[in-house]
């Protein structure tokens, strides 16, 4: 009797040992980089995403720092859609955020009466546990991302509110916001034409706008795979429409419509254009960018340029 009981106990222990090795939750190790408050975080998160974007699959979860359970906060976990995340291919997102946050501070100094512009600071972390329940939920929910052991992901604080895309990565305004139009143009001028910050999405609140996941196009393409270089800058300013604040600021001077668009019903005075040029050249922000190489322009761009008359080195719209 005792032998049979002992055999049952042994069998039960073996079964429990097998089940103990089955990973039932998604979680990360403590992050390798710190948040803006100086903390490292780890996250436990859902079996399926609540959003899938062009580049990331996004899961909701709870994040904790070294102070334990009571430090918990709502979080999002971003994993790359088409490849396994690594330190190298996710570092660009952190760099873009840091650059945007730095520029937002100088923007606030120059325009103190505007809302405070904030950017979420992603933390780089590595997967600790990948749940066995992810696979059935992939089929039930119909998403493609398959998380891998030791894959790197980004952790961000969850932004509560009505999340919107204000300006996309081509500079097209999706929601009305003169404030963000100004910031986009400001990033180009303040960087002396080296880059432009776009894909501005997040939540607008009473006193601030909290954004996440920006794209930066730069002349030397130093901000990752979403950075389309000079052609990206050109595309943004083809779609950007200036307001009263930024209408006299420099723009890429080749292949673009005027900084302040002119309606077809408005007559253009040549002297006004020359005065506008002079205001740009003698303003405090005078570092105009050299035209992009001709071969970087698309055929559509070239046709647009040829269809418009040239005045003082700039394209103007026909009236």
From TrEMBL:
GO terms for molecular function: ATP binding; protein serine/threonine kinase activity. Residues 21-259 form the Alpha-type protein kinase domain. The keyword Nucleotide-binding applies. Signal peptide: none annotated. Keywords: ATP-binding, Kinase, Nucleotide-binding, Serine/threonine-protein kinase, Transferase. It comes from the Eukaryota. This is Alpha-type protein kinase domain-containing protein.
């Amino acid at each position: 009797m005792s032998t049979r009981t002992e055999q049952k106990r042994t069998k039960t222990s073996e079964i429990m040992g097998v089940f103990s090795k089955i990973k039932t939750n998604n979680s990360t190790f403590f992050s390798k980089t710190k948040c803006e408050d100086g903390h490292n975080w780890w996250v436990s998160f859902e079996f399926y995403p609540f959003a899938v974007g062009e580049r990331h699959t996004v899961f909701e979860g709870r994040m904790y720092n070294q102070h334990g359970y009571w430090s918990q906060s709502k979080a999002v976990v971003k994993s790359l859609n088409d490849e396994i995340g690594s330190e190298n291919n996710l570092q660009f997102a952190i760099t873009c955020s840091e650059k945007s946050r730095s520029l937002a501070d100088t923007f606030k100094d120059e325009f103190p009466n505007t809302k405070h512009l904030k950017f979420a600071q992603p933390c780089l972390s590595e997967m600790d546990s990948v749940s066995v329940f992810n696979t059935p939920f992939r089929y039930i929910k119909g998403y493609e991302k398959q998380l891998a052991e030791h894959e790197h992901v980004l952790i961000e604080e969850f932004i509560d509110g009505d999340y919107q895309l204000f300006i996309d990565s081509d500079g097209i305004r999706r929601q009305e916001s003169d404030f963000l139009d100004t910031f986009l143009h400001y990033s180009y001028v303040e960087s002396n034409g080296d880059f432009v910050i776009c894909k501005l999405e997040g939540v607008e609140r009473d006193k601030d706008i909290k954004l996440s996941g920006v794209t930066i196009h730069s002349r030397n393409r130093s901000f990752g795979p979403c950075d389309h270089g000079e052609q990206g800058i050109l595309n943004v300013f083809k779609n950007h429409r200036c307001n009263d604040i930024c209408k006299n600021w420099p723009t890429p001077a080749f292949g673009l419509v005027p900084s302040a668009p002119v309606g077809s019903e408005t007559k253009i005075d040549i002297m006004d254009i020359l005065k506008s040029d002079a205001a740009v050249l003698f303003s405090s922000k005078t570092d105009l960018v050299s035209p992009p190489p001709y071969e970087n322009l698309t055929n559509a761009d070239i046709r647009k340029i040829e269809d418009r008359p040239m005045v003082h080195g700039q394209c103007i719209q026909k009236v």
